[in-house]
Amino acid sequence: MKVLCLNYEYPPIGGGAGRVTRVLSELLSRMGYKICVLTSGFRSMVGVSEEYGCRVVRLRTLRKHPGYSNTLEKISYVLSAILYTHKVIQEFKPDFVHAHFAIPSGIVAYYIKKRYSIPYMISSHGGDLPGFTPETRVYFRLFNSVFRVVWRNASEAVVLNSELAEVVRKHYGIHAHVISNGVFTQKGDIGFDVDPGNVKLLFVGRLNRQKNVEFLIRALSEAKFRNWTLFIVGDGPLREKLEKMVRDSGLSGRVVFRGWLGDSELRDYYRSCDVLCLPSVNEGIPMVGLEAMAGGMALLVSDNGGNRELVDDAKNGFVFKQGDCEDFLLKLGEMVSDPVRLGEMKRYSIKKVKDFDWENIARMYSEVYEKFRS
Fold first, then answer.
1. Stretch 13-20: mean pLDDT, rounded?
2. Between residues 279 and 133, which one has the greater pLDDT?
3. Residue 134 pLDDT
4. Which of 102-111, 130-139, 213-222 has the lowest mean pLDDT?
5. pLDDT tens for residues 278-336?
6. Are 297 and 276 in contact (CB under 8 A)?
């Protein structure tokens, strides 16, 4: 069976959803599915290539940054993908389309269905649902009728947790399968010892309102304990504002911005740091959380649906009340003040993350794929 996958970002550009698309495409191709991925190009990285057993088509778009894109750049992906559809349909002849994100990829999938009568499924990664990302509220108010058409014309839908499944049911009136993200166990040595004089904290993600890094900096500026360093890995529209917050809070040298990093460099941070801090407004099943657990990190995460599923409270970390600095600092203080206990939390993460094995996740997706077999 031939599957055309759509995602506006795909490694080495983009975030967790791009990595999900690549891993799923690789694993499903091993299971016998023929996969073609239609994604955004970046700078000179355009054209057709074979990667991990899949055909990858990188289109010319307006994308300017590897780690994030704006609305205009996403629209340019939609237009480029629509212009390319005739060629890919004629040459690849897909049996169905798998759109990662209802918006923007689902718009292309809907076009293909109407033009070529090829069905599609949607995998939501959270940001394409109302109420998930603060920046998109205005878009859902203005264009939710368009989004509703895209969702309701999908033959199948997948979301990351039960809360998101309820959002899809409530807003679009359709059933969605719940399949979490997955992770591979990291290879190489993983250290569980903690330096009590310098506990290494890590944030990974886009620097936007959803990820709520402003809260993280504000909370740490109020911390009475000082035996920590925070590394911020990622890029986004709020970076300059966040850097100014760090300077104004007197945290320069304690909070270090590393920018956008490739997979190999990111794995090194997971192995060398102690606590992943995720203060997000909302999450599906955050890839960075899974990857950090696989690298032997403890977690300190806000109390939303996707984050909660990663933490066995007080065993591999803590869940804190979103936006509550006092609760965040209380639980972080417990972690940094007891390096032995923190080391035990890091070990437990390795055990816990086995619940999210990629092979099992791919099999669940295969069951959805088989619904398209004629």
1. 90
2. 279
3. 65
4. 130-139
5. 999 988 889 999 999 999 999 999 998 789 999 999 999 999 999 999 999 999 999 99
6. yes
Residues whose CB falls within 8 Å of the CB of residue 41, separated by 6 or more in sequence, listed in order: 47, 58, 59, 60, 61, 63
Give DSSP secondary structure letters for 297-339: -EEEEESSHHHHTT--TTTSEEEE-TT-HHHHHHHHHHHHT-H
Instruction: Take residue 26 and report the two structure tokens written for it.
Output: 């690789």
pLDDT at 130: 81
- 107-to-33, 74, 80, 190, 279 alpha-carbon distances in Å: 23, 11, 12, 42, 31
Can you name the residues that pair with 276 across neighbouring β-strands?
A: 202, 299
This model's pTM is above 0.85: no
Distance from C-alpha of 11 to C-alpha of 266, rounded to nearest angstrom: 13
How confident is the model at residue 32, as a pLDDT? 96
Amino acid, single-letter form, for residue 83: L
Total residue length of the chain: 374
> Please, what is the average pLDDT of the chain?
93
Rounded CA gap, 86 and 272, in Å? Answer: 47
| 160, two tokens | 């990351």
* All structural domains of the chain: 2-182+357-372 (3.40.50.2000), 199-356 (3.40.50.2000)
CA distance 182 to 10: 16
Which residue from 69, 51, 49 is spatially nearest to 9, judged by alpha carbons?
Answer: 69
The dihedral built from the CA positions of residue 318, 324, 325 and 327, taken in this order, carries a sign that is: negative
- What is residue 126's predicted lDDT score, i.e. its pLDDT? 85
What pLDDT shows up at residue 152?
96
Instruction: Write the CA distances from 104 to 110, 129, 134, 151, 180, integer angstroms.
Output: 10, 12, 17, 12, 21
CB-count exposure of residue 40 (10 Å: 0-12, 13-18, 19+) = buried
Counting beta carbons within 10 angstroms of the beta carbon of residue 339, is it exposed (0 to 12), middle (13 to 18) or buried (19 or more)?
A: middle
- The SS3 of residue 9 is coil
Q: Which two tokens stand for residue 243?
A: 């850097």
C-alpha to C-alpha distance for 343 and 338, rounded to whole angstroms:
9
Encoded tokens for 63: 């994308």
245 vs 172: CA distance, rounded Å: 40
Give residue-wise pLDDT tens across range 345-371: 999 999 999 989 999 999 999 999 999
